[in-house]
Write a structure and sequence with these properties.
The chain starts with 5 loop residues before the first strand and ends in a 6-residue tail after the last helix. The longest helix has 14 residues, at 87-100. The chain has 138 residues and is of the alpha+beta class. The strands form three sheets. The protein has a three-stranded antiparallel β-sheet with strand order 5-6-7, with helices on both faces. It is built from five helices and seven strands; from the N terminus they run ββββαβββαααα.
Length: 138
């Protein structure tokens, strides 16, 4: 991950079906694209703003990509423009990404997670991974 632009990495946690969960403090602008290109595997990155808001970016090797936002109510309080993260587009993108990543997403849980509020956005990220079909994140 360092070689493709991620820095200050935490230890990786192995999840089911060969997924890995790794915390990082910073990612270069092209880090996700570089990682997917190098590994040939789908990936999802969530960048957190002070544990209050999560910015989601996910990509598969075939180019299926989606972006989303966690903790919308808190994000709105920070002045983050909600029109850049429409819920319907985020849900549709998340479902298409999950299917392209050979996962079995739960549409209702994806919708709930992308519209939920929590004290810590990291908790919503764990819920989102489970909703997308990535088992073992919680």
């Amino acid at each position: 991950m360092r070689e493709v632009g991620f820095s200050d990495l935490d230890d990786s946690k192995s999840l089911l079906n060969d997924w890995q969960l790794t915390g990082f403090a910073h990612a270069d602008q092209q880090a996700l694209e570089n990682f997917v290109r190098r590994t040939g595997a789908p990936a999802i990155a969530v960048s957190f703003f002070d544990s209050d808001v999560g910015f989601i970016d996910a990509l598969t090797p075939d180019g299926t990509r989606w972006k989303g936002l966690l903790n919308r109510e808190t994000a709105e309080g920070y002045g983050i423009p909600m029109e850049h993260f429409p819920v319907e587009s985020s849900v549709a993108g998340a479902l298409a990404w999950a299917v392209a990543a050979d996962l079995t997403p739960d549409e209702e849980l994806v919708q709930q997670t992308l519209t939920a509020s929590a004290v810590f956005a990291e908790d919503l990220a764990d819920e989102l991974l489970a909703a997308l079909g990535i088992s073992g994140a919680r």
